[in-house]
Each structure stands twice: as C-alpha cells, then as structure tokens.
Amino acid sequence: MRRFPLSLLAGLALALPAPARQAAPADTLRQYELAPVVVTATRAPRHLEDVAVPVSVVTAEALALRGRLRLADALAELPGLTLVYDHGTGIQIQGFDPDYTLVLIDGEPVIGRTAGTLDLERLAVAGLERVEIVRGPTSSLYGNEALAGVINLITRPPEGTLRGNLSARYGTHASTDLQATAETGNEHLGLRLLLDRYASDGYDLDASTTAPTAPAFTDYTADLRFEVRPRDGLTLRLGARLNDQDQQSPLTLTAGTASTGARSFEERTDWSLHPAVRARISRRLSLEGDLYLARYRTESRLRLDDGTLYSQDRFDQRYAKAELQGRLVWDLRHLTTLGAGLIEERLDADRYAERPEARAAFAFLQHEWLPSRLVELNASARLDAHTDYATRVSPKLAVLLRPSERLRVRLSLGKGFKAPDFRQRYLSFTNPTAGYSVLGATELNDGLAALEAAGQIQERYLDPAGLATIRAEHSTALNAGLTAEPLDRLSLSLNVFYNDVRDLIETQPVARKTNGSFVYSYFNLNRIYTRGLESEVTFTPWPALTLTGSYQFLQAHDRDVIEAIEDGRVFGRDASGRDVRLRRSDYGGLFGRSTHSGTLGLSYRPASDGPGLSLRGIWRGRYGYRDVDGNAIPNRDDEFVDGYVLWNLTVTYDWRTRPLERLRLQAGVDNLFDVTRPAQIPALSGRRLYAGFQIDL
Questions:
Q1: Res 3: pLDDT
Q2: What b/e readout covers 517-555, taking b as 16+ CB neighbours within 10 angstroms?
Q3: DSSP alpha helices (H): ranges in 473-624?
Q4: Has residue 694 been placed in a domain?
Q5: Does some domain include residue 194?
Q6: What global pTM score does this model have?
Q7: How many structural domains does the chain have?
Q8: Which of 28, 86, 315, 589 would bridge 298 by S-S if both were Cys, CB 3.0 to 4.6 A apart?
Q9: 88 backbone φψ class: left, alpha, beta (φ>0; ψ -120 to 50)
C-alpha cells in the first residue's frame, strides 16, 4: 500500500486547532520536532515542512529568550527581513517597501498606515504563540496589500487552568515595560487578559536642535482572548485588542529671523474586535465564520509655549469585514478550501477634502492535490471586486516535491496586487510651513482648479482631464527553493525569487506654485523588478547549542531608469561639479535596498531551567538613501549609507521552584558596539542596556 503525507488530514479537515502530535519512534522524533504547524500559507493548519511556499516561523519562547518586546525588534533579527524607518518602523521583504506587506493578527488585518508604513513598534509580542512570515505574493488568498508577503501574529489560545504572570523591565533612555497576564478556564472554556505598559523618555542624537530625535512616549496595550467549546467540534472565540499611545516633544518654529518655542502632542488609539466560530460539520467538512471590526485614530496638536493652538491634524479610519470559509476533504489526495466575504472602509481626516468610503466583495478558491507521496500541488485564486478600482483576479500555483525525507523542493508562480489606498486617491493637503501641496488622483482636477482660483498656481505641467484613472499595482512572482537536512544536526534552506511589478504608483509634480514649491499627485509610472537569493543554515552540534547564519542577495531596479541609462539619457555630477554620462554599473538600484545582508545567531540553552544565552548579529550592506546630483537615483558614494553590523546579546536564568511555576531573570544589550548614524539613520539610538524579571504563577 502506498504511503501519503498526512498533512491534508492533520488538522486540515478540522476548523479546530490542530491536535498535539503523537509520540514518534526515536528515528523520526527529530523530524517532528523541527516541523511546527503553520496556518498562514494555506489558511489552514499545515506542518511547516509540507508547505509549498517560502514560510518561516519564530515562536514566542524564542522571542522571549532574545528579550524582544515589540514586533519591529523581533523581525529585525530574522533572515531576509529588513527594517525601514519612514513614518514609523516598517518591514522590507524581497526588496519591497513596507506598503506591500500585509500584517495580520490571527488572520485579520492591522489597519492604520502612515504614508504606506504600518509602524511595527505599535505591536507588542506579549501574548503571542508564534509569528509566521510568508514570502512572495499571497493575494490569491488575502487580496490587497499581500504583494510582497504576509506577516501573521498568532495569539496563544487561553488554557483551561488558572495561571498568570507578572514581568517588569528597565533599560536605557528610561525605557520601561510592565506586563501582567491572567487566565482561567476548564475543558469547555478559556479566558485570558493581558495588560502591558511600555514607555520611554526618548533620546536625542543632535544637541543643536530643540526637538529630540525620538520623543518621549507612553504606550498601553490590553488584549482579551475568550474561547468556548460547548461540544466536540464547535468552538466560539472572541478576540479584543486595545492600544493607546501618547507622546510629546519640544520644538522650535522659525519664520524668517524670528523663532518661538512650541510643543508637539501626539495621541493614537486603535482597537479591534474579532468574534469567530469554528465548526466541524462532519469528518470531511468544516466551516469557519469571522467578523472583524477595527478603528485607528490619531490626533496631532502643535501648541506654542504660551498655550496657543498653532495647528491640529486628525485621522480616523474604520474597517469592517465579514467572512465565511469552508474546507472539504474529498479523500487522502484532495482538499478544497472556499471562502467569501465583504469589506467596508471609512475615513474621516483633516487632510482629506471629503470623507471617503469604499466597499469590496471577495471570493477565493484553493485546491490541494497529492498525486503521489512525492508531489503535492496547490492551486488558488481570489477575485476582488472593489468600488474604487477594477475587479481583479489573483491566481497562484505552488508545487512541493519530496524526493526524500530529508529534502523538500518548492516552486511557486503567482500574481499579486496592491490597490490605490485612500491617500493616493483622496488626499488634499497643503503643508503650512513648507508650502507644497499633495492631491490624490481623484481630487487632482478640483484641487488644482481651487488653487488656481486662489491665485496660487504659476505653471501647470499637465492637464488632469487627459489622465487615465489610477490603477492597482500588480506583480508576477516566481519563487524556487529547497530545504535539506544532509545531517541530523544540520539543515539548509535556499530560495531564489523574482518579482516583476507593473503600474507602480509614484508621486510626481503636476504644477509649480507662486511660492516656488510644487503641487504633487499620484500616477502609475514605474516598472520595477526585484530578484535575489535567500539562504539559511542551522547547525546544532549538541542539543544545548544552536548556530544559525543567513545571507540575502538582492537586486531591486527600475526598468525605466535602466533603459534611460542604456540610451545614454541619464547624467550624474562628480565631486568637482562636472556632468558625466552614467553607465549601468553606476546605478545603485532603488533607494533603501541593500544588495547584501545577513544574520548570525548563537543560542545556548542546556535545559528548560538554569542559564541561557542568545547572541545575534544583523548585517546590512550599503544602500542608497539620498539624491545629491539631482538625477533621482543613487550613483555617487556620498549618496549611500555605509554597511554596518549590529550585535544583540541576551542572558537569561530560569528557576522553577514552588510556590512559583517559574522565576526568570534577564539582562541584555542591543547594539553592543554602539553603532550610530545620526544623520542617515536616526532610529539607531546607540547601545541600549536592559534588565528585568518575569514571575509565572
């Protein structure tokens, strides 16, 4: 009788969480321990080794032993991920800006982006079970914003016992983190409440200015998880999350030769509510229903030292989604997943001329087929019908080959898209200090007419009436890779990727104002590609010690720029001020992308209690960050940030003694060798020390 992988049956037929794996023979125990369960890649529980697309997982315990508190710090140490500091801390995957990565909590989107960046510092890792990262376009299952990949924060379900923990940490810049968790339940229900307070006095890398580099802030998070299991095969869940932050900082306003003191106040509140039901209808059929409500609000105020309100800016985004999903296991070879839903978004903000609303309907279909024990095929497609842009269909095909128990080969080809957001369609904003204006594509015609009527336009560069409607950005992507275990203690992974992106939305000046500044709007302009290689090695010479290393090679280029260079139409300016025609080798690619990057790691953990040590290195090669000679591309050495390496060290000691379940002491240092780039990377604050404890009850 032929043997087939049990991945389709190990949780796929059940909407309930995957059951614990049974004990395995000694010769296969190693393999099972290295195969965590993931849900993001196929929207169903699968063992990591049986997923056909590039996926990585980091567990809550791994994050705790590294001393990570916020999602940004957690992702910075993972292979192939790069932090981007622009209107917050975002993440770069396969060379894509943060705009193109979808961030989820238990499968539902986190809203509230600023200039396209979702600030990962907003998200605490407390209460998580694991973080899953899917690389490559995943629009065939998740739709908009999943062009580069998906990051899914999986919360830990409440356990059926009375337990809790308390923790506190203090560090450089008077940073503090206070946390308390309590949970209770029985075999039919579970409840957990988590409270977290995170604060800092900020820091200043430039004493010549009044405003600090990073302002002081206080951040509060409350997270509630409730689960009821009235009978076998039926689970009702409720997830609720609230985050609130206040920050303030002094600054100086200058007008001509006069200056006055002022203070900036920023308030941010976001919350989400996620009721869900998981029902096993039969041995072969399961259903999932989800409702999701979210709101993100910010308010910025600038007050002069005498208390006068100088400026104010409000932003209020609301999001609602309803979704139904079903899974049917036909037999050992075939599994079908089908889902559909509705989305509604609303925005009320001072920078928008109206209150935009948008609605969308979507449906997706996925079929998994195992023609033999060596091959698994996964085909999926999603249809998105939106009120503000054309209907899109996003297909994807993935293949998993198992030549042996120690080798997996993965191939995937898919399409992704990112729709124009509210900012790119409806923004209507004039900077009161700098004097420039930004108009969304929908507001461009009326906005320019209003500025002309006010006598503020000196010259138009184009006629908005002749412009095409702004379109969604779209990509075609190929990923090909393998994972191998040549030895019991050695594992290797390799992934080659290629992303071809069309209709990239960029800003461009459309008119010059009488004050000398410009009016900007959004257009489908660029054609880019990103391609490269991701690799990782893990070596465990003995159970207490794990060594890891990763390397990424990346090329992210604008096709239009390359064509212009090859045609001899692009010039630069050398240090003496002389114009020179550029060659293709002079082109440094898209700004903010390092051609070479990597990580190193050492983890020592001899037992579940006692000492533990974690040392991590993050290497980022040089990358372009500014345009000195006016050609809008990085080509001179003084337009690049030099490469650097950051080292983080954490030491942990655990005691397990009554009446406590566990006492954990931890100390560490981030940026061990005090690397800073004040003018280029203000987010690098220098060496940061911390120490803290956690009591598990």
A1: 44
A2: bbbbbbbbebbbbbbbebbbebebeeeeebbbbbbbbbe
A3: 559-566
A4: no
A5: yes
A6: 0.92
A7: 1
A8: 315
A9: left
